[in-house]
Amino acid sequence: MSNTLFGGIEAGGTKFICAVAHQPPELINTTVIETTTPQETLAKVCDFFFPYVEEGSLQSIGLASFGPIDIDVRSPTYGYITSTPKPNWQNTNILGLLKQSLGLPFAFHHDVSGSAIGESRWGAARGKDPSLYLTIGTGIGGGYIINGKPLSGLTILEMGHIHIPHQWEIDPFEGICPYHRDCFEGLASGYAIEHRLGQRGETLPDDHPFWEIEAEHIAHALVNYIFTLSPRKIVVGGGVMQRSFLFQMVRNKVRALINNYLQFDILLGKMEEYIVPPQLGKYSGVLGAIAMAMDISSTSSKIEASQSFVS
Amino acid sequence: MSNTLFGGIEAGGTKFICAVAHQPPELINTTVIETTTPQETLAKVCDFFFPYVEEGSLQSIGLASFGPIDIDVRSPTYGYITSTPKPNWQNTNILGLLKQSLGLPFAFHHDVSGSAIGESRWGAARGKDPSLYLTIGTGIGGGYIINGKPLSGLTILEMGHIHIPHQWEIDPFEGICPYHRDCFEGLASGYAIEHRLGQRGETLPDDHPFWEIEAEHIAHALVNYIFTLSPRKIVVGGGVMQRSFLFQMVRNKVRALINNYLQFDILLGKMEEYIVPPQLGKYSGVLGAIAMAMDISSTSSKIEASQSFVS
What is the value of pTM for the model shown? Predict the structure, then answer.
């Protein structure tokens, strides 16, 4: 067994995926833990990692968590899951609890950022920086990777909540976002689909006229992101995008909306290489968390190296 | 006279502003040159800088140019003004011509990025990174500064062209963007105002009902940028924003649109510190160009230092 291992945790609202890998990355162990109470769930997470901690092989762990989370290192609640509606998890110091139990360096970010890092480092956006990762599932979230790192500023990105044109005559649904009603997430998330049609998207046939509306909303959002973030690759995952015919519908609408304003081959002719599905499947998040762990480990090595150079 | 000077050029469609400064920055000479033909205009620009080149004091020059420009260093037309509608300037190798005549290292970016850098380094967004600079004038453009540098990816940002909700019953104007009709720029730029009302915005009274519509469009765009870019400060300049009462209207609408989704003091109570006018006035662009010049100069010093260390 390699003696230099890195851990990853994708902490989701329904399940936690944990993994241990060595470089390049190769996953040598994974587990899936149901999300129940913080006490029970985090104890099982620790049980998974303890053997590697004890043998001294685990260098660091990346934690990509569901949110809302506090990623401001100067904040007293840094590392917390804050105002989530999920029972038992409000104001949970998830980072602090894991760090204390496992005694290792941790990297911490949002779960969507984890997937964005994973796809950027080893998946569909490899070699394309900056890149955008968007998940369209129950909710809608995005992560933007620039110089290998997830963009954050005042807070993490909340790009699912942008407002896009809403053509009421074509789409009379009023939207279900409790804060913004007909924002992108309020109109186009899996939850919105279920509310507007009274059935889950999975049960709709491919030729249902609703998919044109869904593709139009997604295309409007992607065009806004393209004009604002100028990514070199857009990876779109999440349950709704399992309907793979949506990709070509969205690409055609994106091309029509940009309308030759940007003259790049990738936008004019090769959009099937520009807007793409994820490549890492269910492991994009946990692989991103492992990349985060590798990054802090190499940073601390560099700091140690530079310190030993000085002394 | 200091023997370490930096040059800046804000190359605009109607005028070029040139300046020479020494650190911290202190402008020691500036000039304004009317934009006529490339030959005539660039000759005058060179005349301004020649004395400093000859005395050996000028280290480098930053060039912040009107566009569209090619900023991809791997492209054969890097440094060109490309498909501009401005007569005589299509496919002008502005960077190459200036570099050849003056024989100095140049930094090159978009004019809006220049203003964004200027306000981030020494103006209204000082100490707030990442920050957003938006100009709402004849057109609408934006620059986003992260880690002190302007964000670019596939190309420069084109955030004036995002689509925002268009409430036709309140605002029946169809928009004037030749590519996207009722995108943000198509609805809210100075050019759009003149077209929709048949008079320039400067001539409208403060209590004209149109300003509510204008503020609503600006607020929608800002909220989309906030959710997508999460800036720590938003600086809004340009001719339209000379109507300073617009700031408070926009702030109130931004707060209403976010609707407590983001719980940050700056968004809840102190928005007058979050969405602000520029502080550097007509020099924000050229000061940004000077910052660009200082940055490449310190980079090349570091490279030289590291090379001499190796040898």
Answer: 0.93
